[in-house]
Amino acid sequence: MLDLKRIPLSALIGLFLTALFLFAALFAPWIAPYGNGQIVGDVWGPMSATHLLGTDNLGRDLLSRMIYGARITIFIAVAATALSFILGSVLGFTAAVVGGWIDQTMSRFVDLLMSIPTLIFALVVLSVLPSTLITLILVMGILDATRVYRLARAVAVDINVMDFVEAAKLRGEGRSWIIFREILPNALSPLVAELGLRFIFAVLFLSALSFLGLGVQPPDADWGGMVKENKDGIVFGIPAALIPAGAIALLAISVNLVADWVLNRTSDLKGGRGNG
Amino acid sequence: MGSALILRLIAQRLALGVLLLFAVSVLIFAGTQILPGDVAQSILGQAATPQALENLRRELGLNDPAYIRYFRWLGGVLTGDFGTALSNRRDIAEALGGRLWNTLFLAGCAAVISVPLAILLGLLAVRYRNGIIDKAISGFALASTSLPEFFIGYLLILFFAVELQWFPASSTVFDTMSFGARLQAIALPAITLTLVVLAHMMRMTRAAILNVMQSAYIETAELKGLSAFDIIRRHAMPNAVAPIVNVVMLNLAYLIVGVVVVEVIFVYPGMGQYLVDHVSKRDVPVVQAVGLIFAAVYIGLNMIADIVAILANPRLRHPK
Questions:
Q1: A124–B291: do the CB atoms touch at under 8 Å?
Q2: Which of A219, B103, B135, B152 is deepest in the core (most CB within 10 A)?
Q3: Domain boundaries, chain B
Q4: What is the least distance, in Å, from the CA of A242 to any CA of chain B?
Q5: Are residues B151 and A249 in contact, defined by beta-carbon separation less than 8 angstroms?
Q6: What radius of gyration do chain A's Cα atoms show?
């Protein structure tokens, strides 16, 4: 069904670049020319044949660090997005189906969480939590789940009054059947359209946290952390920090292009079921 | 009818804002209590003797239950006393004063540039809809919502501070500085913030105006022969004000958050940098205070947006 020629150019570019980043993330140890922490040359060495992107603030090969950085960045962003989707959609569907005080309590709590800027609340919580990968994924995932919750609840409230859901209720199906077998398949396409945007948000959010020194801790580094490591070179005219920063931007733009295309496709199909 | 009703609606909105602020203060306080360890442990470190821990806990009042500590904290905040920082034992309110002013000055400058520019570009995009200007503007919008603040910031530093040397790379400001020197110091961070919020504000302004221009009453006005100017003045403007104000306020709130990263990039002595420094030092009282102030500004701006919308749009005065 998927005709390559009918994909717009912008989406093709997006798909290609996203695939490239994913490839780098998956196969990092095999394609990186040097080790992640291996010191191979001078501090902030220029771009050359042996070090395609030059070396970083400690003399490590920047290209290798970028490739390992892709792995950490994409892994955390994917994990946080997955958590926010599972948590947000299950709770959102439950709120819509069960209704009553459970819905009221959860919705008001989400309103409250969203009335504080996400970055600020994340900083407040991170000031007492240990700096580990798990904490980072949990904090990012839970805070982002508020937005998925709102979308999932709104979609599920609409579906919940449809005839096939009424029929399922009348034949005595339990709540988990209603949620997972009746509502979930029908709510999937608006949620999938949101997926790309939430992923981009997760990448930018993680990068900001790591840039502020509160995300991934050294010696590991995601792209945001690499910007922090190399930022002092900027005033000497050394652009090393711009390479990871640019990679973040490029990843976000590529996923945006793909998400735009998916969004247009699914809205063309009126519900977007079938046709993969 | 009229003014009394409006006053009541505004009073309701204000009361809701105050209520929300209290709820947020509970949440911020609770957010720093989610770990079993306490402040005394983090001051003294893992190697502290139980006796020393106990003494410090008594001194800081940590043996009281959480709700008593919350009300004690809240009472202090309401009287302008934020307590003392753990890391350097200095008064927080004192340290905050100058920084809050610096942050508001930076965000204010960025707002003064970005708001008129965004509305102007939004209008241009509607006027030349689907033309080259519109396409260029939406392409720019896509790119800039994907760019992290530090990419824009360091690019500007590399170009304008290092290559051209027009502006300083780090925005040091101090009290005795003249207004002009201060403006020059914050030029780059203000431009960075402007670029960060501009695209979103522009896109939403465009959508808001477009939405109004496509309504049936605009068409009716055209058909009954009103001039373009009259259509805009009597029909389009009153309806577009509320959504545009909403867009502007939402983005100003975003500006307040974007300021955290931008202040770190440009080493600007504002609230954001103060917050980030003390998060890594695990200085909980400072984090609570700054977090609460950021949240208050954010809630305040959203409240103003709602009130302006009530004033501008008579339809919102009649609850359904």
A1: yes
A2: B103
A3: 98-282
A4: 6
A5: yes
A6: 22
Neighbours of A92 (CB within 10 A): 30
How many CB pairs (< 8 A) connect A and B? 146
Q: What is the pTM of this model?
A: 0.85
Residue of B264, B279, B294 to mutate, interface with A, max A Cβ within 10 Å = B279
DSSP string, B34-90: -SSS-HHHHHH-TT--HHHHHHHHHHHTTTS-HHHHHHHHHHHHHTT---B-TTT--
Of B146, B279, B288, the CB nearest to A249: B146
CATH fold for the domain made of B98-282: MetI-like fold (1.10.3720)
Residues of chain B found within 8 Å of residue A236, distances taken between Cβ atoms: 162
pLDDT digits (tens), chain A, 276 positions: 566 667 788 888 888 888 888 888 888 788 877 777 777 777 777 777 777 777 777 778 878 888 888 888 999 999 999 999 999 999 999 998 888 899 889 988 998 888 888 888 898 888 888 778 898 999 999 999 999 999 999 888 888 888 888 888 888 888 888 888 888 888 887 888 788 888 988 999 999 999 988 888 887 888 888 888 888 877 777 788 888 888 898 898 888 888 888 777 765 544 433 333
Chain A positions touching B23 (Cβ under 8 A) are 112
| CB-based contact B299 A212, cutoff 8 Å | no
| Collapsed DSSP state (helix, strand, coil) of residue A130 | coil
